[in-house]
Design a protein that fits this description.
Elements lengths: L3 E4 L5 H13 L2 E4 H4 L5 E3 L3 E7 L7 H9 E3 L9 E7 L9
């Protein structure tokens, strides 16, 4: 299973970072607003990345809802899940190296 890179982008900065990360780790980019309508969001990926901007020094409401509905399917109890959360606090444009 490929890594899942979930993204919510307000202005596009988070989307740019998400695309770069997904490409680097050969993952699947998934829009959080697209999947948020599901009652339960499921994945069996071994790597999960969640990317979103910080609003007023907190997480957006859509991210709170997403996390509450997110379920990781542990097919093998010995499987180790690797996850990363990227919160963006940017005042300028994201720059590639």
């Amino acid at each position: 299973m490929k890594p899942n890179v979930y993204c919510f982008a307000g202005t596009g900065n988070s989307l740019t970072v998400a695309k770069d990360i997904a490409k680097e780790i050969e993952g699947v980019l998934i829009s959080i607003p697209y999947v948020i309508g599901h009652d339960i969001i499921k994945t069996d990926a071994k790597v999960v990345v969640i990317i979103f901007p910080v609003y007023m020094w907190g997480i957006p409401l859509i991210i709170e809802r997403f996390i509450k509905n997110f379920k990781i399917l542990m097919i093998n109890t010995f499987m180790q899940l690797r996850h990363m959360v990227v919160c963006l606090v940017l005042q300028s444009t994201y720059l590639k190296k």
